């Protein structure tokens, strides 16, 4: 029997069956096109290679430094991001014997309900959603920060983004809201840098432990290739997946007992005891002023012999606090977060220098 033409089938249905809730499609440059416009440079490539090696060695226990991922909750102003990078770089040499600094450069924000979803999604913060520009400018900023000599950490949220930006990232987080998502576990299994899975927003560890296990495996899933072609991707599995404790469910989980319980859970699951503590979010009950205390507590645990805490994360900006995104964008305050409240640079520098001194004392006395 002759098959009816596709359009005939659609007409006979009397109404459209697809794209019912879609208002439009706009073309997006392919990863290859964006990379041609903002190509990888030798200096950036060398820095990423160095960054990833340092992170892997620290996670393996071959390098006794502490990973410190510090930077704004979200990037909205590339100029301020470079200003922050310069400040972090200016203390990097001083603390480098005990701390490996990674700048937190978060372009994609997972929202609890709704809100601005980050620089790639809406770079002008005016609902114009120029993602082609957002992606290109994000890549240019990552190139610059790497060329300056700072390693970069980011959240892997949109499964397409790593094809555009992945070669410039030394450390990834999968966020609390997506740790249970199969899509994100599959993506993590193929990412080229170590990946930290946050515990869920409920504070429970099972989700992130399952996520680490899943990401160690090889997976087949759908994605895009560099040329934009929809593809079946086969991954190898990510041997450097690890746990990030961020608190949740109304309580922190950075204290000695919580860390010991997390170590036990990792051991029970047959996983390496590698933990990064996010000093913000549920661990500071979203009060940025508490972040230095969380950091101090982690440093004390390390000084007292803990070996599972491999790193910490700070939400830090040039100036403290946060601000709503104003309708008149000229009213935006420079260097202040437009998402979660951050500690300011002076507080960050003081906390990092203090952490360095304590870690150095331990090293000299060991
Ligand atoms: O770190 C950022 C926020 O905690 C996360 O994106 C959730 O933000 P929201 O609860 O303001 O949506
Ligand atoms: C969203 C973030 O964290 P979490 O997933 O822990 O809420 C973040 O670090 O920006």
Automatic annotation (TrEMBL):
Residues 57-351 form the DAHP synthetase I/KDSA domain. It catalyses: D-erythrose 4-phosphate + phosphoenolpyruvate + H2O = 7-phospho-2-dehydro-3-deoxy-D-arabino-heptonate + phosphate. GO terms for biological process: amino acid biosynthetic process; aromatic amino acid family biosynthetic process; chorismate biosynthetic process. InterPro entries: Aldolase_TIM, DAHP1/KDSA, DAHP_synth_1. Its EC number is 2.5.1.54. Belongs to the class-I DAHP synthase family. This is Phospho-2-dehydro-3-deoxyheptonate aldolase. It comes from Turicimonas muris.
């Amino acid at each position: 029997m002759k098959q009816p033409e596709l359009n005939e089938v659609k007409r006979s249905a009397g109404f459209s069956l697809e794209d019912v809730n879609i208002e439009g499609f706009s073309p997006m440059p392919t990863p290859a096109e964006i990379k041609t416009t903002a190509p990888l440079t030798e200096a950036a490539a060398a820095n990423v290679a160095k960054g990833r090696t340092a992170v892997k060695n620290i996670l393996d226990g071959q390098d006794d430094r502490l990973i410190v991922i510090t930077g704004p909750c979200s990037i909205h102003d590339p100029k301020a991001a470079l200003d922050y990078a310069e400040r972090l770089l200016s203390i990097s040499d001083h603390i480098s014997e005990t701390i490996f600094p990674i700048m937190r450069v978060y372009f994609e924000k997972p929202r609890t309900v709704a809100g601005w979803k980050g620089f790639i999604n809406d770079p002008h913060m005016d609902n114009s959603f120029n993602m082609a520009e957002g992606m290109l400018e994000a890549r240019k900023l990552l190139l610059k920060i790497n060329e300056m000599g700072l390693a970069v950490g980011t959240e892997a949220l949109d499964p397409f983004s790593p094809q555009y930006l992945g070669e410039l990232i030394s450390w990834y987080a999968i966020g609390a809201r997506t740790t249970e998502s199969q899509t994100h576990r599959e993506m993590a299994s193929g990412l080229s840098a170590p990946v930290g899975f946050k515990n869920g927003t409920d504070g429970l560890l099972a989700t992130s432990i399952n996520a680490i296990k899943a990401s160690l495996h090889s997976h087949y899933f759908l994605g895009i290739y560099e040329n934009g072609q929809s593809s079946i991707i086969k991954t190898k599995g990510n041997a450097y997946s690890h746990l990030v404790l961020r608190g949740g469910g109304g309580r922190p989980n950075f204290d000695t007992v919580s860390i010991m319980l997390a170590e036990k859970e990792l051991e029970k699951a047959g996983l390496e005891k590698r933990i990064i503590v996010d000093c913000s979010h549920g661990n500071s009950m979203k009060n940025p002023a508490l972040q230095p205390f969380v950091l101090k507590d982690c440093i004390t645990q390390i000084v007292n012999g803990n070996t599972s805490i491999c790193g910490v994360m700070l939400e830090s900006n040039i100036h403290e606090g946060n601000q709503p995104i104003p309708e008149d964008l000229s009213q935006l305050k420079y260097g202040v977060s437009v998402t979660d409240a951050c500690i300011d640079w002076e507080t960050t520098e003081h906390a990092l220098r203090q952490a360095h001194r304590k870690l150095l004392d331990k090293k000299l006395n060991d």
